[in-house]
Each structure stands twice: as C-alpha cells, then as structure tokens.
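Minutes, project huddle
Topic: does the predicted pose make sense with beta-D-glucopyranose bound?
PN asked that the exact inputs be recorded in the minutes so nobody has to dig through chat later. Recorded below.
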Amino acid sequence: MKVNKSIIRSTTFCLVTLFILGCNSEKNSKISIEESYASKVDSIIQLMTIEEKLGQLNLPTDGDITTGTSKSSDVAKQIEEGKVGGLFNVKSVEKIREIQTIAVQQSRLGIPLLFGMDVIHGYKSTFPIPLALSSSWNMELIEKAARISAQEASASGINWTFSPMVDISRDPRWGRVSEGNGEDTHLAGKIAKAMVKGYQGEDLAANNTVMACVKHFALYGAPEAGKEYNTVDMSRIRMYNEYLPPYKAAIEAGVGSVMSSFNEVDGVPATGNKWLLTDLLREEWGFDGFVVTDYTAIEEMQYHGVGNFHEVSAQALKAGTDLDMVSEGFLKTLKKSHEDGVVKMKDIDKAVARILTAKFQLGLFDDPYKYCDLNRAKSEVYTSENRDMARRVATESMVLLKNEDQLLPLKKSGTIAVIGPLAVASNNMAGTWSVATDQEKSISVFEGLQQTVGDRVTILHAKGSNLDYDLELEKRATLFGKTITRDGRTDKQLLDEALRVASQADVIVATLGESAEFSGESSSRTNLGIPQVQKDLLKALLETGKPVVLVLFAGRPLTLVEENDTVPAILNVWFPGSEAGFAISDVLFGDVNPSGKLTMTFPRNVGQIPIYYNHKNTGRPLNNSEGKFEKYKSNYLDVRNEPLYPFGYGLSYTTFEYSNLKIDKTSIGMDEEINVSVDVKNTGNYDGKEIVQLYIRDVVASVTRPVKELKGFQKILIKKDETKTVNFTISAEDLKFYNYNLDFVIEPGDFEVFVGENSNTNLKTSFRLTSRN
Ligand code: BGC
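Predicted holo structure (tokens), as shared on screen:
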C-alpha cells in the first residue's frame, strides 16, 4: 500500500475535529482513555502494514546508554522505515528534534515518536536519589521535585520518564534500593501518587508535563539473596498485602505506562506473565495505558528458559506487553508468528492502539515538536530557582543518625578539615541514575563549604584514602564517568597527609562511604560496611582526639555498628544531587535543621537481612526489650534482634517529647472513624520539623498480621518550646487487608495504635472494631 505524507496529514487533520469530540467525551469518567481515542487510533491502524504496526511496538535506544548486553542497531534507517515507536535516553533537544523530523517527514505514515528517559531524580537540576527523597517524608516536596524534573525534561525533548520506581525492598544488599522508596508499603504508595502527579500534572498534553512509567512490575525488589536480577519467589498473600499496593497506587493516580520487571513471578518471567500483565493489571486494577518491557527483557526470557526468541516474543505480546525495549523480538518475529497462527492480528492491533493512544494523550499528533522548543531548553533547565529547590529538598532528605553532646551544628568559625575520598568528588554527588546531570558541575562538599562559609571558616582538605583497598572493586563502583581518580600514593602517604591536615583543624569532617555506583543497578553487595580503607582512615582520624563528624554517602542502609560506637556525629547524606555541597553545608552549620527519617531499616550486620519493622510475630517471639538471648525463641545466638537504626528513625538538632496520646472512641463500627491525637513538644534549642508516625497492629485476624504497620504520618514544623497537637483519623478502610482468599476485607476485632518518632515507639492506645454499621 502506498500512502504518502499528505494522507496521514489529512488523517491527522480530520482527527483534530474528532479530538474535540474526544476531549468532551473524556469528561465522562466512565469512558476509558483507550475508548476516548479509539476512533482516531483505529483510523490510523487501518492505514498500517504489519511491519509498521510492529514498528510502533519497537523501542530502541540511541546507544548512549546501555544497561543490557545488546545495543540497538541502525536506528535512523529503522525510523525511516516506520520500524520504531519511540527512543530513549537521547540527551539533546536538537538531536530529538532532528530524529522526530525523520519520523514525521521521512517515514511513510509520519507517526511521531515517543522520547523516553530515565529521569529518575531530576534532569539537570538533580534531586537526591529516590531512597533519600523518600526519607524526607514530605509529599509536597516530592511532588514538586517530580514537577521540576518533568519541566526540565520536557523542555529538553523528553515526553516520557521511566519513573517512579516503587519496588518495595527489605534487602539492602540489593543495589537498587537506592532507586526506591524503602521498605514500607503505605509510604511507598503515597510517594508513587505524588510522583505520578508531579510528572503528569493535570494535563498530559501540556508541553511541560511528561508521561510517567511505574516500574518494575512486579516484585523486582525481592531478589533472592539481594543479588541483582535474581529469582523472586513470593506468596500471593505477601504480594497483595505488602509488595503490590505501591504499583496499584500509581495506577490509581493515573500513571500512563507500566514497565514490566526482569524477574519471574510465580515461575513465569514478568514480561511474559499473563496473570500479572492482564488479569491483575488490566482486569483487576483497570489499567488502560501501555506496558513496556525492561531493557532486553523479552530476549532474556530465553535465558530464563521459557522458549526460543519467536516463542518468548509471542508469549510477551499475548501476556499483555505492548512495547519491546531493545530486544526487537516483536519487530523480528511477530510477523512470522502471525503467519503461523500463533499470534492474532487483534492482539497486535491492541498493543499498537495503546501506543498510538499514548501519543494522542501527549498531544504528539497535534504537534510532534511540542517538546522540542529550543528556547525552553535554554531558559527552563538548570535554573537557579530549580537548583534552589534541589538544594532544599536535599537538606530535607538527610538523616542525622547520631549527634553526641550536640557536636552538630558546627560553628561558623575556626578551621575545618574535610577529609575523605568523597570530599571533592563532584561527579559522584548526584548518585546513581542521573542520566542527564552534568556530573562535573555538581557541588562537592569541599566546594559547598568553601562557597557558603569559606569567608569565616578556614577549610582544609586531604583525600586520606582511596575508595577501597581493592582496585578492581573500586573500578566496578566508579563507572559511567563517576571515577574517583585513584591516587597513586601509598595508603600510608595518603593517611599521613590526612593526619597532617587534621592536626591543623578544630573539627574533622570525614566524607566517607559508598561511591555513586556502589549502589544502583547491578551493584549488589554482600558486605555492607564502609570500605575497609576508609574505616582505617576514620579510626586514625578519631585517634587524633579531635571532634569528628562523619558525613556518610550511601545508596543503601550500611552496617555501622562500629561507627555508631565510636564517632560522635553521623550525618547520612545519601547522594544529595547536583547541589550536594551546598545542602550539606546548610545542615552541618545549622542553617537547616535535619528532619529526614529512615525509610529502610539499618541492620547491625548482613546476617540480619532481610530485616524490616513490619514483620510478623511468629509463634515464638522474643519479648524481652533488652534483646537478651532466649533459647527456643525467635532470635540469634550472636546478634540481637533489633536493627541498629529502626525504620522511621532520624534525629534533629532539637528534641521532641510525645505525650497525651488520646483516642476519641474505644469502639467503632464499620462506617465510623476514630480520631487519635498526640501532643508533641519541642524541648530543645532549635525550631525543627518532626515526622509524627502512626502505626497500627491488628491483634487477631484470620491470617497472621504484622506486629506494626504504618498507617499515617505528618511532617510538621514545631518551634522551640512550642507544643503542637497532631491529629490522625483512622477509618475502617485503613484496617483492610487481603485475606487467605485474597479478598480485601475488614475483620472486626482489637487494634493497637502506636504513635511516635519512629517505628520503635511504645506510646500506645487501642480500640475495638465491631461489625455494627
Ligand atoms: C533498568 C530500567 C531502566 C531501563 C532503561 C534497565 O536496565 O532496569 O530501570 O528504565 O534500563 O534505561
């Protein structure tokens, strides 16, 4: 069939009229997105050859970023031939415009391309890594961060981001905990919603919003032994209650797309799992956007051992996958599978319709270049306003782990020695998955301190040590332009220099921990300590007798028993983003009082993993609070049960006292609500923000329930000496869970309510839920 561009243009033109009707119909909430664009989409599908249809289902990468084993081939030619539906991780608006022009002007049908990117925690103005963002517990700021990310990305040609990642994980050996929201289902669901809202805004077709993509569906955060890409095996009841709700929350927030995960679910790779991608996602949850695979996930199904390339490609399509990232399995095999009767045209059309619908939603048929405004790229990216926001968000995400004798905040006078391999490592400040960040421009700790307090404080620096004794490990942990230049001097020479510099200082700021790529994708670890060479440096610095503040860089919970015992002050800064050094300075000198709290438990040692606060009670719980070993109880011979720092933990420069926990009813019926209130007093010397947390325990149920579950939290500013009463409302809806039959039920009975500053709180009250209405 020969169709020239004028035909598709006139089709597009006709569609404009229909578009108006479509817009009206969208007001009717009963009509799905698919339905509201159906006639326009159908009219395009009717013009398409099977090759062009399969082309829409093909998502190559430009080749700048590769995470799997394959690269996409000959992309420009494929675009001309209509064999590409979108591209990802292209980093310049000029280039995107050029590529879009090929699609629109040189392909037969002129269908515009999607441009995706891993805009995970900012575009150029880079926010802290997601695990850090979650530690702010500030939904407004998280939404704002996503909004700014969308504005900058859309000004740079991007219309689709591979975020949010909402994989629950309880295993810090897994490097990608840095990209998620931690271990808690309730909190992760709230963050999922805030991020989808931030990215997509009110109008997906606006030129400053982007389509979000929730990932990695599903259960990617639970690989056995924390080893990347490893097998996942989980009961359905755990999935439904603990791991699936954050993805569902993103769907409820209207996320436009879903990325399937690399792992298997119930023995079937997620990308080819019909139960997951169709029965659950579409039929049970009502998702009507499109599903994209993860990088080469279709190709990888062969290595999972479920079929050859033809078979797995057909399986993925029939399971509900729409867009094939990099594998080219759809492009290269589905025509034959269709001829062989293995795949029906209606299945191919369904997937094509979903991709075209997304393009309509984004307004690409109205104006394929709407995200390619070169002026916006110049004026709206990395603005001082956006960078200020990144700095502010970074300060709210840092977690003060220890502060003996109020060593922090530091005085803005005297001499400070900033020592450690991360002190001047600008290129590591943004952390993992910061694809568009100008790494070298990020503000290092040394630079940040110099620029903020350098006129009053003398700031000295020495490297002190390399990242690790092991050169090979160091290389693996400093990829993608994030090298921490290996110092050719011996360990002793580095240490001697550090001690010389330290001897001139009043305070030592030790900038230690992980490098950016020590966490993230394909960065699993079995030893979660600060690398030994840095521990040795720290020990030597402590032995000087000078006060030492540990500024800890980490993309995951680390094991810090020794540091907690010996270092007077520990500020966990994660990876704070492009404004790192400024934000660290703000907190160290008390311009901002730290207010972050952990969203993942910090274990005492690796043997305690998986460790998480909302565990079950078991039949033989250990009930002594001193953590004493008891024979035939659920505990260890060699380490106590409690973690080093529990979920929800984080200090402030001030102190808060909780009292007066009240509940307005001791019994409620199914339709009623309960009000819980608590007084929180700022008893210290600074104004400060506190994250007040409410947990519930369902004491008796038809299935075992966690010892505690977060059900509410509020982050509030309390001035010095001020007391605030914080109120929470609990409805029967909050007490629902999935029972043995996976029905979402409320069961009457007794509930305990805990309120406090972290998950370890014992301030408790209780109520009864009765079956009356
Ligand atoms: C990651 C995804 C990412 C994709 C595209 C994969 O390796 O698992 O999270 O979105 O690459 O860059």
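Observations noted during the meeting:
- Residues 65, 67, 89, 118, 162, 215, 294-295, 521 surround beta-D-glucopyranose (CB under 6 Å).
- Residues 656-769 form a domain with the Immunoglobulin-like fold (CATH 2.60.40.10).
No decisions taken; revisit at the next huddle.
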